[in-house]
Protein backbone atom coordinates (compact mmCIF):
# COMPACT_ATOMS: atom_id res chain seq x y z
CA UNK A 1 0.00 0.00 0.00
CA UNK A 2 1.21 3.51 -0.82
CA UNK A 3 2.24 5.64 2.15
CA UNK A 4 0.68 8.67 0.49
CA UNK A 5 -1.73 8.56 -2.41
CA UNK A 6 -3.83 11.15 -4.19
CA UNK A 7 -6.72 10.38 -6.52
CA UNK A 8 -7.90 13.05 -8.96
CA UNK A 9 -6.76 15.70 -6.47
CA UNK A 10 -7.91 19.12 -7.71
CA UNK A 11 -8.34 22.70 -6.57
CA UNK A 12 -10.06 25.57 -8.29
CA UNK A 13 -9.32 29.22 -7.55
CA UNK A 14 -12.01 31.44 -9.05
CA UNK A 15 -12.34 29.39 -12.22
CA UNK A 16 -8.65 28.42 -12.56
CA UNK A 17 -7.74 24.79 -11.93
CA UNK A 18 -4.42 25.29 -10.12
CA UNK A 19 -4.22 21.51 -9.59
CA UNK A 20 -6.32 19.22 -11.71
CA UNK A 21 -7.03 15.49 -11.42
CA UNK A 22 -3.61 14.56 -10.04
CA UNK A 23 -3.13 10.85 -9.35
CA UNK A 24 0.03 10.35 -7.36
CA UNK A 25 1.50 7.69 -5.06
CA UNK A 26 4.68 7.38 -3.00
CA UNK A 27 5.83 4.37 -1.00
CA UNK A 28 7.89 4.10 2.15
CA UNK A 29 11.56 4.94 1.58
CA UNK A 30 11.03 6.64 -1.78
CA UNK A 31 12.19 10.08 -2.89
CA UNK A 32 10.07 11.70 -5.60
CA UNK A 33 10.85 14.97 -7.35
CA UNK A 34 8.22 17.45 -8.56
CA UNK A 35 9.15 19.71 -11.45
CA UNK A 36 7.25 22.04 -13.72
CA UNK A 37 7.26 25.63 -14.95
CA UNK A 38 6.49 28.45 -12.50
CA UNK A 39 2.80 28.55 -11.65
CA UNK A 40 2.23 24.93 -12.71
CA UNK A 41 0.71 23.95 -9.35
CA UNK A 42 3.59 22.25 -7.51
CA UNK A 43 3.37 24.28 -4.31
CA UNK A 44 -0.43 24.21 -4.42
CA UNK A 45 -0.30 20.40 -4.64
CA UNK A 46 1.80 20.28 -1.45
CA UNK A 47 -0.49 22.86 0.16
CA UNK A 48 -3.51 20.60 -0.43
CA UNK A 49 -1.69 17.52 0.86
CA UNK A 50 -0.59 19.36 4.01
CA UNK A 51 -4.09 20.75 4.64
CA UNK A 52 -3.36 24.44 4.01
CA UNK A 53 -5.81 24.39 1.10
CA UNK A 54 -8.97 22.30 0.87
CA UNK A 55 -9.28 20.22 -2.31
CA UNK A 56 -12.19 21.21 -4.55
CA UNK A 57 -12.44 17.55 -5.56
CA UNK A 58 -10.44 14.38 -5.33
CA UNK A 59 -8.94 12.59 -2.35
CA UNK A 60 -5.67 12.18 -0.45
CA UNK A 61 -4.83 9.13 1.65
CA UNK A 62 -2.07 8.27 4.12
CA UNK A 63 -1.65 4.49 4.45
CA UNK A 64 -5.13 4.11 2.99
CA UNK A 65 -6.73 6.51 5.47
CA UNK A 66 -8.62 9.42 3.96
CA UNK A 67 -6.96 12.69 5.04
CA UNK A 68 -8.85 14.98 2.64
CA UNK A 69 -10.22 18.00 4.47
CA UNK A 70 -8.21 17.48 7.66
CA UNK A 71 -6.61 20.52 9.27
CA UNK A 72 -2.83 21.06 8.94
CA UNK A 73 -2.12 19.98 12.56
CA UNK A 74 -4.17 16.80 12.04
CA UNK A 75 -2.26 16.01 8.86
CA UNK A 76 0.98 16.61 10.73
CA UNK A 77 -0.21 14.06 13.28
CA UNK A 78 -0.67 11.58 10.42
CA UNK A 79 3.09 11.88 9.78
CA UNK A 80 3.35 14.57 7.10
CA UNK A 81 5.78 17.39 7.76
CA UNK A 82 7.06 20.11 5.46
CA UNK A 83 9.22 23.11 4.71
CA UNK A 84 8.19 26.17 2.70
CA UNK A 85 9.47 27.81 -0.46
CA UNK A 86 10.13 31.07 1.42
CA UNK A 87 11.83 31.08 4.80
CA UNK A 88 9.62 30.68 7.88
CA UNK A 89 12.40 31.61 10.31
CA UNK A 90 12.42 34.64 12.60
CA UNK A 91 15.71 36.18 11.59
CA UNK A 92 16.01 38.31 14.73
CA UNK A 93 15.91 35.21 16.93
CA UNK A 94 18.70 32.74 17.62
CA UNK A 95 19.02 29.33 16.02
CA UNK A 96 17.81 27.67 19.27
CA UNK A 97 14.81 30.02 19.61
CA UNK A 98 13.77 29.29 16.04
CA UNK A 99 13.91 25.59 16.84
CA UNK A 100 11.73 26.14 19.94
CA UNK A 101 9.13 28.13 17.96
CA UNK A 102 8.94 25.47 15.30
CA UNK A 103 8.26 22.73 17.81
CA UNK A 104 4.72 23.74 18.67
CA UNK A 105 3.28 21.33 16.11
CA UNK A 106 4.99 18.32 17.64
CA UNK A 107 4.33 19.34 21.25
CA UNK A 108 1.95 17.08 23.19
CA UNK A 109 1.67 19.17 26.36
CA UNK A 110 -1.81 20.58 26.96
CA UNK A 111 -2.93 23.83 28.61
CA UNK A 112 -3.36 21.76 31.79
CA UNK A 113 0.31 20.76 31.57
CA UNK A 114 1.38 24.37 30.96
CA UNK A 115 -0.50 25.54 34.07
CA UNK A 116 0.06 22.67 36.46
CA UNK A 117 3.03 20.69 35.15
CA UNK A 118 5.44 23.40 33.87
CA UNK A 119 8.46 21.22 34.46
CA UNK A 120 6.98 18.52 32.24
CA UNK A 121 6.46 21.15 29.47
CA UNK A 122 10.00 22.44 29.82
CA UNK A 123 11.35 18.91 29.56
CA UNK A 124 9.33 18.30 26.42
CA UNK A 125 10.58 21.53 24.82
CA UNK A 126 14.15 20.73 25.84
CA UNK A 127 13.92 17.21 24.35
CA UNK A 128 12.49 18.63 21.08
CA UNK A 129 15.24 21.24 20.79
CA UNK A 130 17.84 18.61 21.56
CA UNK A 131 16.43 16.36 18.81
CA UNK A 132 16.41 19.24 16.30
CA UNK A 133 19.90 20.31 17.40
CA UNK A 134 21.23 16.77 16.90
CA UNK A 135 19.79 16.74 13.38
CA UNK A 136 21.20 20.18 12.68
CA UNK A 137 24.68 19.09 13.80
CA UNK A 138 24.34 15.98 11.68
CA UNK A 139 24.21 18.39 8.70
CA UNK A 140 26.81 20.82 10.07
CA UNK A 141 28.61 20.09 13.38
CA UNK A 142 29.76 23.75 13.65
CA UNK A 143 26.19 24.80 14.37
CA UNK A 144 26.33 23.45 17.91
CA UNK A 145 28.52 26.45 18.84
CA UNK A 146 26.25 28.81 16.92
CA UNK A 147 22.98 27.93 18.62
CA UNK A 148 22.71 31.35 20.28
CA UNK A 149 23.69 33.28 17.14
CA UNK A 150 20.90 35.28 15.49
CA UNK A 151 19.57 33.47 12.44
CA UNK A 152 20.14 36.54 10.24
CA UNK A 153 23.89 36.17 10.93
CA UNK A 154 24.27 32.59 9.77
CA UNK A 155 24.70 31.44 6.15
CA UNK A 156 21.63 30.85 4.01
CA UNK A 157 22.27 27.12 3.73
CA UNK A 158 22.33 26.76 7.52
CA UNK A 159 18.97 28.56 7.71
CA UNK A 160 17.57 25.99 5.30
CA UNK A 161 19.03 23.26 7.49
CA UNK A 162 17.25 24.71 10.54
CA UNK A 163 13.94 24.51 8.71
CA UNK A 164 14.55 20.94 7.62
CA UNK A 165 15.72 19.86 11.10
CA UNK A 166 12.63 21.44 12.64
CA UNK A 167 10.44 19.57 10.17
CA UNK A 168 12.12 16.28 11.07
CA UNK A 169 11.44 16.51 14.82
CA UNK A 170 8.80 14.00 15.84
CA UNK A 171 9.91 11.49 13.16
CA UNK A 172 7.48 12.21 10.32
CA UNK A 173 7.06 9.43 7.76
CA UNK A 174 6.66 11.90 4.87
CA UNK A 175 8.75 15.03 4.37
CA UNK A 176 7.66 17.65 1.83
CA UNK A 177 10.44 19.99 0.70
CA UNK A 178 9.41 23.02 -1.35
CA UNK A 179 12.44 24.30 -3.25
CA UNK A 180 15.04 23.69 -0.53
CA UNK A 181 17.80 25.10 -2.75
CA UNK A 182 16.00 28.38 -3.60
CA UNK A 183 18.44 31.25 -3.15
CA UNK A 184 21.46 28.98 -2.72
CA UNK A 185 24.52 29.29 -4.94
CA UNK A 186 25.81 26.37 -6.98
CA UNK A 187 28.16 25.07 -4.29
CA UNK A 188 25.51 25.37 -1.57
CA UNK A 189 23.02 23.61 -3.84
CA UNK A 190 25.37 20.64 -4.12
CA UNK A 191 25.78 20.62 -0.33
CA UNK A 192 22.02 20.71 0.15
CA UNK A 193 21.72 17.81 -2.29
CA UNK A 194 24.10 15.79 -0.09
CA UNK A 195 22.11 16.85 3.00
CA UNK A 196 18.94 15.39 1.51
CA UNK A 197 20.78 12.18 0.73
CA UNK A 198 21.99 12.18 4.35
CA UNK A 199 18.38 12.34 5.56
CA UNK A 200 17.75 9.18 3.55
CA UNK A 201 20.77 7.47 5.08
CA UNK A 202 19.73 8.40 8.62
CA UNK A 203 16.01 7.68 8.30
CA UNK A 204 15.75 4.80 5.83
CA UNK A 205 11.94 4.54 5.73
CA UNK A 206 11.19 8.22 5.30
CA UNK A 207 9.61 9.30 2.04
CA UNK A 208 10.47 12.67 0.60
CA UNK A 209 8.68 14.75 -2.00
CA UNK A 210 10.95 17.50 -3.24
CA UNK A 211 10.05 20.42 -5.50
CA UNK A 212 13.17 21.60 -7.26
CA UNK A 213 14.19 23.57 -10.32
CA UNK A 214 17.82 22.50 -10.35
CA UNK A 215 17.98 19.59 -12.78
CA UNK A 216 21.32 18.41 -11.40
CA UNK A 217 19.59 17.87 -8.05
CA UNK A 218 16.72 16.15 -9.85
CA UNK A 219 19.17 13.88 -11.61
CA UNK A 220 20.95 12.82 -8.42
CA UNK A 221 18.38 12.82 -5.62
CA UNK A 222 14.93 11.38 -6.51
CA UNK A 223 14.40 7.96 -8.02
CA UNK A 224 11.25 9.18 -9.77
CA UNK A 225 10.17 12.55 -11.14
CA UNK A 226 6.63 13.84 -11.61
CA UNK A 227 6.14 16.72 -14.03
CA UNK A 228 3.40 19.33 -13.65
CA UNK A 229 2.16 21.74 -16.26
CA UNK A 230 -0.83 24.07 -15.88
CA UNK A 231 -2.00 22.14 -12.81
CA UNK A 232 -1.90 18.72 -14.44
CA UNK A 233 0.54 15.85 -14.17
CA UNK A 234 1.93 15.54 -17.68
CA UNK A 235 4.71 12.98 -17.17
CA UNK A 236 6.22 10.65 -14.61
CA UNK A 237 9.30 8.45 -14.62
CA UNK A 238 13.04 8.39 -14.13
CA UNK A 239 15.15 11.48 -14.84
CA UNK A 240 16.06 9.97 -18.18
CA UNK A 241 12.40 9.27 -19.04
CA UNK A 242 11.16 12.77 -18.27
CA UNK A 243 13.96 14.78 -19.86
CA UNK A 244 13.35 12.90 -23.08
CA UNK A 245 9.56 13.24 -22.92
CA UNK A 246 8.21 15.49 -25.68
CA UNK A 247 5.37 16.85 -23.50
CA UNK A 248 7.91 17.90 -20.89
CA UNK A 249 10.22 19.51 -23.43
CA UNK A 250 7.26 21.42 -24.88
CA UNK A 251 6.03 22.53 -21.44
CA UNK A 252 9.44 23.96 -20.63
CA UNK A 253 9.99 25.50 -24.03
CA UNK A 254 6.44 26.92 -24.11
CA UNK A 255 5.24 24.63 -26.88
CA UNK A 256 1.57 23.89 -27.36
CA UNK A 257 1.79 20.09 -27.53
CA UNK A 258 0.16 18.32 -24.57
N1 LIG B 1 -4.46 31.14 -2.78
C1 LIG B 1 -4.52 31.26 -4.12
N2 LIG B 1 -5.49 31.99 -4.72
C2 LIG B 1 -5.55 32.10 -6.06
N3 LIG B 1 -4.69 31.52 -6.90
C3 LIG B 1 -3.69 30.79 -6.36
C4 LIG B 1 -3.54 30.62 -4.95
N4 LIG B 1 -2.46 29.83 -4.70
C5 LIG B 1 -1.95 29.54 -5.91
N5 LIG B 1 -2.67 30.10 -6.89
C6 LIG B 1 -2.43 29.98 -8.33
O1 LIG B 1 -2.24 28.62 -8.63
C7 LIG B 1 -1.28 28.47 -9.67
C8 LIG B 1 -0.20 27.52 -9.22
O2 LIG B 1 0.64 28.18 -8.28
P1 LIG B 1 1.80 27.43 -7.50
O3 LIG B 1 1.29 26.14 -6.98
O4 LIG B 1 2.36 28.38 -6.51
O5 LIG B 1 2.85 27.15 -8.67
P2 LIG B 1 4.33 26.56 -8.60
O6 LIG B 1 4.64 26.20 -7.20
O7 LIG B 1 4.32 25.39 -9.54
O8 LIG B 1 5.22 27.65 -9.13
C9 LIG B 1 -0.79 29.86 -10.01
O9 LIG B 1 -1.51 30.32 -11.13
C10 LIG B 1 -1.13 30.66 -8.78
O10 LIG B 1 -1.34 32.01 -9.08
MG1 LIG C 1 6.10 26.94 -5.88
TrEMBL record:
The record's Gene Ontology biological-process terms are: D-alanine transmembrane transport; L-alanine transport; L-isoleucine import across plasma membrane; L-valine import across plasma membrane
Lineage, top-rank taxon, reads: Bacteria
The record's Gene Ontology cellular component field reads: plasma membrane
Which Pfam families did the record assign?
ABC_tran (PF00005), BCA_ABC_TP_C (PF12399)
Q: Which residues form the ABC transporter domain?
A: 4-255
Q: Tell me one GO molecular function of this protein.
A: L-isoleucine transmembrane transporter activity
Identification of the protein by name: ABC transporter domain-containing protein
Q: Which UniProt keywords apply?
A: ATP-binding, Nucleotide-binding, Transport
Amino acid sequence: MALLETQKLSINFGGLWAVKDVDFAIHSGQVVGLIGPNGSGKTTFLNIISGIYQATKGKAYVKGEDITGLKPFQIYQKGISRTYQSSRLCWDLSVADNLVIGLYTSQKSSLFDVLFRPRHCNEEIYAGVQEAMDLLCYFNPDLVDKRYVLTKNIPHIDRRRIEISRALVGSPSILLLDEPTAGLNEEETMTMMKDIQKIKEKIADICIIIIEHDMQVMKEVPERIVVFNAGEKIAEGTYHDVVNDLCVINAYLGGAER
